[in-house]
Amino acid sequence: MASLMKTFKPLELGVMGILLALAVVGLVTWGYQISQGLIVTNMRNLFPWGLYIATFAFLVGTAAGGLIVSSLVYLLNIRELKPLAPLASLTALVFVLGAMAMVLPDLGRPERIYNMILHPNFTSLLVWDLIVLVTYAILSAIHVYIGWRVYVAKLRGLPEAEVARVEEESYRWGRMLAPISLPFAVLIHTVTAWIFAVNAGRPWWYGGYLAPSFIAAALVSGSAVVILTSLALYGFREDLRQAYNTMMKFLGISIAILLFLIYQDYFVRWWWGGEEHAILSILYGRLWPTTILGELLILLVAFALAAKMRTATGATLASALALVGVYAHRFNLMEPAYNVLVNKVLMPGLSEPIPVPVVLGDMKHEYWLYTYWPYIPSPVEFIITIGWLAGITFTLYLLAKLLFGR
Amino acid sequence: MPRYAMVIDLNRCTGCRTCMVACAMKNGLPPGMFWTIVTWTPYDVKQADRRGSASYPQAPMLPLHNICNHCDNAPCVRVCPVGATYRREDGIVLIDYERCIGCRYCISACPYGVRVFLWEDPGRTLGDGLRKVKSPYPYKAGEDKMAEPGYIYGDPVEYRDRGRLVHTSVLKLRRGIVTKCTWCVERVDKGLKPVCVEVCVGRARIFGDLDDPNSEVSQVLARKNAVRRLEHLGTEPKVYYIPKTNWPKVLE
User: Fold this and answer.
1) N or C terminus: fewer CB in 10 A for chain A?
2) What is the value of pTM for the model shown?
């Protein structure tokens, strides 16, 4: 234990202590939420999914990015990225487990989750999402093991021939697995996007645009997390310089693709007007901090940094800002879907369709029929989400340090 | 096998909301929670604010109904990950209260906004509601000075459809699950009509079998033009609305 503690510097221990404390606070708050019911969140009947599910989508994306990076190493034989491949697999593993854990606080009855296995309904994309997420977790665990074997062989100081043999073997396994894991990496985020995209009653989600944009967001947040983990673990080392440069290029291109996908969609909606304008007026009205600052400006700054500043500061800033930007983009997933109501009645004799109000679901507000719900996550939602994110960061760094950081 | 449907004749509706109240009483719904709603809505929407209220004479009003459509192609049934929401052969869409995990995917998928989640224990909502109106009778769920100890209002009988709990007083349920209109399945199975149909003073709500040409719904639908809500989505809803034809003049 003492020798284990010695592998961490005091600063690292401090940061990890804070992360662990935040995670514990999150867990305790979840206990409070279970004891009170989901009434302590600001979700209501006309806004049934909020910050939790947005964070879930963000985490799935980050997980997908991890194996996309590490299987590209094997498939396209990008040699300079090889030292980052095991770390990328580890982020994939930790984030996919974290994403599954993120759904739990959103459930009204988390203790009944076993029904997903006892009575799965195979027309529901949530069931398919669970299947691909579990498969993905297993695949990334295998990838982590493959990378770890080489690392341990080097650490033990085995003879050079032996290390080369292990390395050769691992590379062969990686090459064999990559054609399976790359489709799964794409698939987890595609299926997650389909959870939303199949809802014909939500014009903001419905259609074929969502899945490609989710994949682009996954490439951004996934590569950003790999860069950040590697920087925290190894620093901006000279022998990794080439790897960082390639990752930054990859990050920049992904941001450009994501912004293109977002804004071509906005253009189509803007051109048509009507219901689609209502979506844009929510995005640029009430949600302007996440739309203009988060999604556009922060991502543009991250893009510029990734393109121009190939230094330690540049890499850190670009990746951190990219994560913030993608998270803001994810937050925008919810409100335009729920607050642009398709639930309207148009009958002969009416000049315009009448919106049908929805029962709010509590007695804490003075009225109980609403057609619009200005959702802002409640403190409980914020604390639980921060706790979960802190727990994921803690686990990721701990495992990275223990497996690959010595 | 019958195929049930409901017709709501807006020419006959007086907007008295008896259906809402009877439904809430029979199903033991806590305050602020309704499985069917009738709202007086100004039909010139520009005048209406968010809550749908406006002042006379700018706003000619229309009673607006909302109730579960028991769709033939129900999105909620398709998306439920555990199969808690299911559609019977006679077309009634039900929720197994003992299986629902509370993920609220069905609320996201339902375009009609008829599903209500139990955000907290219904008894607690009842207490909140009564405190809010400053009721002279301090009432907690399950204890009423007027009734026997342990009395909980709403239908005292649990009803199971092939072993699955689909109807009980909502006040007996615990938080964290989704509920909605069941078209009073326990009454329909006995050959009775849903309470909202039974109590309607103007006989605006009609319930019956679409496949039986002699049933009242088939007769009415054959005679009159009826519309269904959001038909373009392909959900095949089974609540038919007969549009208002006797519009009042807008006062200038």
Assistant:
1) N
2) 0.92
From A318-322, A377-381, B150-154, B219-223, the region with the lowest mean pLDDT: B150-154
pLDDT band at B47 (very low <50, low <70, confident <90, very high): very low
Tell me the residues of chain B between 179 and 198 that have a Cβ less than 8 Å away from chain A: none
Q: Provide the ipTM.
A: 0.91
> What is the pLDDT, as a whole number, of residue B48?
46
Q: What is the pLDDT of residues A252-263, one digit of tens each?
A: 999 999 999 999
Q: What is the largest CA-CA distance in chain A?
A: 87
Report CB contact under 8 Å: A126, B103: yes
Report percent pLDDT > 70 for chain A.
98
Could you write out the three-class secondary structure of chain A? CHHHHHCCCHHHHHHHHHHHHHHHHHHHHHHHHHHHCHHHCCCECCECCCHHHHHHHHHHHHHHHHHHHHHHHHHCCCHHHHHHHHHHHHHHHHHHHHHHHHHHHHCCCHHHCCHHHHCCCCCCHHHHHHHHHHHHHHHHHHHHHHHHHHHHHHHCCCCHHHHHHHHHHHHHHHHHHHHHHHHHHHHHHHHHHHHHHCCCCCCCCCCCCHHHHHHHHHHHHHHHHHHHHHHHHHCCCHHHHHHHHHHHHHHHHHHHHHHHHHHHHHHHHHHHCCHHHHHHHHHHCCCHHHHHHHHHHHHHHHHHHHHHCCCHHHHHHHHHHHHHHHHHHHHCCCHHHHHCCCCEECCCCCCCCEECCEECCCCCCCCCEECCCCCCCCHHHHHHHHHHHHHHHHHHHHHHHHHHCC
Please answer yes or no on whether A121 and B81 come within 8 Å at the CB atom. yes
CB neighbours of residue A30 within 10 Å: 18
Structural domain boundaries in chain B: 4-242
Rg for chain B, CA atoms, rounded: 19
Q: Using CB atoms, which residue from A115, A342, A345 is nearest to B101?
A: A115
For residue B48, the one-letter residue type is A
Mutate to test the interface with A, among B79, B225, B249 (most CBs of A within 10 A): B79
- Which domains does chain A show, CATH number per domain? 11-404 (1.20.1630.10)
